[in-house]
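FYI - complex with HDD, inputs then prediction.
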Amino acid sequence: MTDRTTYETRRGEGGETHQVTGASAGKQGHGTLTSNQGIPVSDNQNSLKSGRRGPTLLEDFVLREKIFHFDHERIPERIVHARGSAAHGYFELTHSLSDVTSADLFQRVGDKVPVFVRFSTVAGGAGSVDTPRDVRGFAVKFYTREGNWDLVGNNIPVFFIQDAIKFPDLIHAVKMEADRAFPQAASAHGTFWDFVSLMPETTHMLMWAMSDRAIPRSLRTMQGFGIHTFRFVNSEGKSTFVKFHWTPKLGVQSTVWDEALKLQSADNDFHRRDLWEAIASGNFPEWELGVQLFDEEFAASLPYDVLDATKIIPEELLPVKPVGRLVLDRNPDNFFAETEQVAYCPANIVPGIDFTNDPLLQGRLFSYLDTQKSRLGTANFHQLPINAPKCPMHNFQRDGMMQMVVPKGRANYEPNSLDQANEESGPRECPATGFRSFERQTGKEEQGDKLRVRAELFADHYSQARLFWKSLTASEQAHVASAFVFELSKVEFQHVPPRMIANLLNVDKRLGERVAEGLGIDLPDANPCAREPLELEPSPALSIQKNMLETLEGRKIGILIADGTDAAMLDQVTAAVRAAGATAFLVAPKVGSVKLSSGEAIAADGQLAGSPSVLFDALAILLDEKATKKMLSEAAAIQWVMDGFGHLKAIGHTQASLPLLQKAGIEPDEGITGLDAHFLKAAAKRFWEREPKLRSLA
Ligand code: HDD
């Protein structure tokens, strides 16, 4: 809506400004509904008709404009990463990197730059669920004083393929199948496994994608990675290789597979809602940015290629140096204008940062700019508020569809000799501060004949897949093996699972055997390796379970109450949960009113059937004897407890609620507690050791 009292029109060469003033300007204030032309609307309920029961008239411009605009509300969704959620925030520098980069945002400790961060799934459409097994995008736009820098990464530090030329094939294979348009948001289908089993370079990433990393509990508990090796360049022009890592303050947390599946029906928007609510309630999600810095000599000493995006550098070998914090403190004002229209591009870099020859990165530098033209429809997409730099921007690019800027003056070319004093001649390049590509003295490998080849060490497809496998706990390994079984069990091409297992045998013999046993098929021979795998040292930093933070901060505790619940105990439990930094969410059979033991009636936060226990990190059951008896014939209550137990969560309960636990088949263990301090400690954990008693894993 246009505020007509301040609306300005610009006219003529001189660009004088005319304000709409006078008595008529004030007639419609902020509250008046208008058309897009600013014409006040008298009736927004009825179209214009000829007679009471007659036809609608073509002259009804109010109706036509409204429907015309509605018809064009959607833009093409992203070909990948279509489903996403985003937030505003800032990046604050905690350690200066001025020795290795001239990038302005890395100079002065305490400096903050605004950011917009979008998290996403990869395979599903914009309306798909939040919790499929999938890689998560982690894209950060830094609005620095020297222009926008986009670090467009994922929550897994490696990628499926080594060369961008394979990206369309990978994405075609993983998305819903071409003829039938299913499955939505799932890699568990024939074409995906057909493709990846033919591409041994995907093996390392598949190990991660089948691990618990691909079923995060919250966007707030994911790591992020820049993946490629980038370059820093300092003020002397010296280059240092760099890999970027985001580490969540709350630690990395994931779900159990059965929980992720059930979350899909419990709440399609589980991650989106969680991010939104955390920010809205002032619990701002936070990550630490860390860098791994190294030189050419170190790179040459590694048995793998740092230009190969299917490889990591273990942090035990090259520590991650903390440099700053990312805080998300503001939800978007409008999902479409910001989250949908934000256009990231790995080619957006600032002076002091540069690319390497990673062939996957090089292909990305073209793809993102290109896709924005098709999504946002015009080369002027950079003018959208969410994409525009927050520093001054001047050049001689002009016109194009949807030009929002009204450039002044005659100079739209350069060089020109128009009057500089009046700034009529426009901006000029600046050799001293402008972006300069790093001038590397290229070696034999980096120049020469035109070749469609890959560098030699790229042929090692299994060493790091094995390293990852060896770094996991037994429970995490069982999850990986079971995920392979689950996914391959959905593949109807009989010849594909054996071929995949033949690759897995090169990672670890037992892994291959376990997947074959889980599927109930014969064990194939291992695939021949292009390069024999190396025995690399495990990296404990890669395990979630080994590094999980035992904290209640940022978690959500589901508290089951009903008529008769002890008021004092409820007070005590909710106060303790809140004091520990978690949210207490009251679940009751009737949401409107629960009559506590004190006679006080309170409202619950959620109704039992609509608030399954998958939504919570730990459960507390505060039922008295009478309520427990009622719940024994309430499927939702039994399922609530059974799932909480099955998803390896702590359950604190009153003595009177014990029969409900028994009915749910729960055998007490360390995670089943009273409602005392022990519960708070248990609620900060998952009880992995419970799992083998509950389900057979591969
Ligand atoms: Fe990509 C979107 C991450 C390889 C082509 N990619 C996209 C997004 C993320 C990534 C997080 C969503 C950004 C947002 O929230 O809007 N992509 C990656 C990572 C890769 C990667 C970490 C490998 C290390 N991507 C990659 C390749 C190509 C693309 C090799 C093509 C050659 N990616 C695109 C794209 C998208 C995209 C088609 C879709 C929407 C968009 O760019 O803006 O251009």
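DSSP finds 18 helices and 20 strands in the chain. The CA atoms of residues 463 and 533 lie 5 Å apart.
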